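Chapter summary example.
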Amino acid sequence: MATSSRQKLPFLHVIDDEFVLPDRGDEQEGPESAVPAGDPEEAVRLFHYYRQLMAQILGYEEELPEPASEADLAAAEAELGVALPADLRALYGIADGDDDLVNPLFDRHPWFPLAEIGDQDDEWLDIAQEWEHEPWRRTVFDTQPPDTVRRSPLRAGWIRFAFDTGGNWLAVDMDPGPNGRPGQVIAIGVDYTDGPTYVADSVTTFLRRLVEALERGDYRHHDKSLWIDADLPDWSGGHTRYSDDRPSRARAEQAGPRVQEVRVTGVEDCAFLTAVPDVCSLVLSSEGSPDLTPLAGRPVEHLELDMESADLTAPARNRELRSLSVTCARPLELAPLRTVPKLWALDIAAAHVADIATVTELKGLRYLEVTQDQWQELSELDNLPPLAVIGVHPHRPERDWPVSTAWVTTYDKPPSPTA
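The structure predicted for these 419 residues follows.
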């Protein structure tokens, strides 16, 4: 059975099996006015030039499949419920995608035929969102540039057109974030459950970067194919991680202001949070009772506290807080949480709660993690929130944090694709 950073999972009681995890991307607005960046004529020109360069390098030219007809394109768009961007549509007018090509058009990502473009297996997402995997502890992060892509693991407007054969896709984004453009290319899949990655503003730009890489000689032979090292954002998945023994402030400042995930143990002073204004997932562990006032000004959506005592007054001033886990030895007051408008997940199994009846006033709660004794006390009360899932521990979990480690995670400095 999977374990969290603190303990084994509780016994899960699913009350509402139709409950869907809140999607942060649904809360974001689309662009007020966004013109697609793609150019169908330029995309076609780049397509032919790309194939010409590939033939010169490899000494042969692969045969392309027949083009898709206008009827084929219209049928595919009707099934998808959204029109393809003009540049990708133009490429299908040259050749219906072929995932059997040794050297696919989209570097290391075989290109789907139209018949397959809307028929993808999403078991990877179902598994990631199973309660045994604690999806409520995970945050979908923003990509770079900020607010270009909605903060979702998957959306209907993300049309997957190429596959890396390992559970990840390239998609054209027809439902972009407030700073995005329709038709931008993103990477999604099993390596991106913590957030999609922005790749290029269009298929046209994506092709241009591949062509420029071939012209520079930035490619490697791999068996009978080429691996192109284009000047594109990393799409290998995962975060860049910083870890050392310096004070927390030094670590945060090194990572840069775009840090979105922070974990620090041995916390004595939370002032270092001023250096990470965009943090939205925060785990703090302390042998004492640090002042949590700096949390009030942070857009933290997921918060985990493990300390001698915790005052939730400052964290409760954060109107973005969605999930909270508290481990503490001294009595914990839940009363401040009454004013948190978006709180839907709460873990108090490892806390001595002084006012557990406050849970009945947290009407937005859908996930609750408690001990058997805590649940017994709650079940005797009226007007409990409409919980979808209850996690029950037979006994109060023991704290099991390391005493002197820390790491921060950021999208600010992604690793090289060739690393």
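To summarize the output: The radius of gyration is 24 Å.
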